[in-house]
Amino acid sequence: MAKTRIKRNEGTPLDLDLIREIRVNRSAVERRAGTMGKRRTVKKEWQAAWLIRAISCIDLTTLAGDDTPGNVVRLCAKAMHPVREDLVQGLGFSPEDIKVGAVCVYHNLIKTAVDTLEGSSIPVAAVSTGFPAGQITHRQKLNEIRASVKAGAKEIDIVISRAKVLAGDWRGLYKEVQEFREACGEAHMKTILATGELSTLTNVAKASHVCMMAGADFIKTSTGKESVNATMPVSIVMVRAIREYYERTGFKVGYKPAGGIRKAKQAVEWLIMIKEELGDEWLSNELFRFGASGLLTDIERQLEHHLTGRYSSSYRHPMA
């Protein structure tokens, strides 16, 4: 995310009175979430257009224990050409028109990704701060962030200390995230809440606001490693926090659902939710990302169906 038209979130002083007053009506949020995918449908060329937009918002990710430089090189090649050339031409685009938002890897593979993506304008994102559990010392977390930035990562996905949320230690959370942001420097910081481990939607809303006050450029649902990852109710709570923060401060903060979004239909539902809750300006990879690895394959299959009327096998759209 080297270039942006969006004024970066500078953060604000911690407002504990605001945090204490936050309450989430779970039933109302779940009713709203239940309408997604039912109130609007998009078909044919309009569906294809939404799916192309979804591709541009994907953080193409590999965060496995068996990651190798070879895997990352192949993933970066996919990031630069995420859709088969015959499909790109059939849709009326050139191969240079369609790219993903970023490539996300562990720290030790940053250099491989940076070297492979050189000249493509696709940034490298690195997970940091003891991802996924965050159970290392604060000093180690700061050192890891600085090392990843030095290695060439333009975006840093940090994890918060869940215990601070569960204990209601909002001052501690604010200070932690503020120091993470300082360590990131010019690199954009995506703050992972691990919402599946925060117990309540009210905790999700409070943590979202505290992280934005501390200077988060994005707030992100999950590491993808929790038992419950991105869900529509959690997303609604988080994007409404983003809207409230923007209305109060004038700073636009990005949103990234991660984990569990594997189908093209889900991607369209999330994009529609963003359009309805935040507006068209958030429908770009400057302010919205999917954290996904398997999503792209299903989107490609849907685009091929749009062009040919037939569904292809997944092996025709390899990820790496």
How would you summarize what this structure contains?
The protein is of the alpha/beta class. It has a single domain (16-316), classed as Alpha-Beta Barrel (TIM Barrel), CATH 3.20.20. Helices cover 46% and strands 10% of the residues.
Secondary-structure-based class equals alpha/beta
What is the CATH architecture assignment?
Answer: Alpha-Beta Barrel
The largest sheet has its strands arranged as 7-6-5-4-3-2-1-8
Question: Main sheet?
Answer: 8 strands, parallel
State the total count of DSSP E strands. 8
* Helix content bin: 40-55%
The radius of gyration over CA amounts to: 19 Å
List the helices and strands in order: HHHEHHEHEHEHHEHEHEHEH
The residue ranges in which pLDDT falls below 50 over 5 or more consecutive positions are none
Say what the CATH topology is. Answer: TIM Barrel
The number of helical runs is: 13
CATH homology group: Aldolase class I
Mean pLDDT: 94
Taken as a percent bin, the fraction of beta residues is 5-15%
CATH class: Alpha Beta
Shape: globular
Q: How many distinct domains? A: 1
